[in-house]
TrEMBL record:
<feature type="compositionally biased region" description="Basic residues">
    <location>
        <begin position="224"/>
        <end position="235"/>
    </location>
</feature>
<dbReference type="InterPro" id="IPR020915">
    <property type="entry name" value="UPF0311"/>
</dbReference>
<dbReference type="Pfam" id="PF11578">
    <property type="entry name" value="DUF3237"/>
</dbReference>
<protein>
    <submittedName>
        <fullName>Uncharacterized protein</fullName>
    </submittedName>
</protein>
<feature type="compositionally biased region" description="Pro residues">
    <location>
        <begin position="199"/>
        <end position="218"/>
    </location>
</feature>
<feature type="region of interest" description="Disordered">
    <location>
        <begin position="181"/>
        <end position="235"/>
    </location>
</feature>
Amino acid sequence: MSEFPSLQPAFTVRVTIDPGFAVGSASRSNSLQVVPMTGGTVKSDPGYSLALDAEFVGTGNDYIHADPDNKHLRLNAHGVIKTKDEALLYMNYTGVVTMGPAEQAVFSGKAEDGATPFGNSFTHFTFETGDERYKEFENRVFVGQGRFRVEKGKPIVVEYKIPISNVELLEDFRLHTASLNAVKAPPQPDDLLSDTPRKPTPSTPPNTLPTFPEPPKQNPQTNKRQRPQHRHASR
């Protein structure tokens, strides 16, 4: 399936966490634990089209709900990162952690130095920013897998590797959306050189939502209803 979108490395997220607060929940069957996110970095891969080199600022939190059987954790993390060129981005990720033996050892404080294997933690990242230089991060879909890094005497680090669908596919979709919102077709080179007046192009109202794939175009003249002709009786 050569047409199926491939994945390429996008960036790596490393988050330093402190021991969580067992808040609990009186209205839900799964308990809530709030885990402070005290630092970390977000760095894009050298080959990725969107450059990002940022650090966490302030203190974020990961609001974790454990399933009643404690076999899975539901993540909902919020934080703010600051880039080297002073841009601020809000970052949120949600996901599910399957509690295997390695993950259970981390949360119980019994893990040895090293990293847990990839494959038990999967996340979805979103970004929000008012900085025009990084607005494209709001338009991308990021998914990743995570693991825990443990080093004696230091805080636990959560590490996420985030790939992304190939840029060409996303670029095609963006261009397709732009074409749907175009109000008027641009003049063609032959039209610019011709002495013959160019026929006006009927305007098309912009779509509020993209449609993919694009439906076949119809002649707008065929959609007009014929007005009934009123005949006046001759006197």
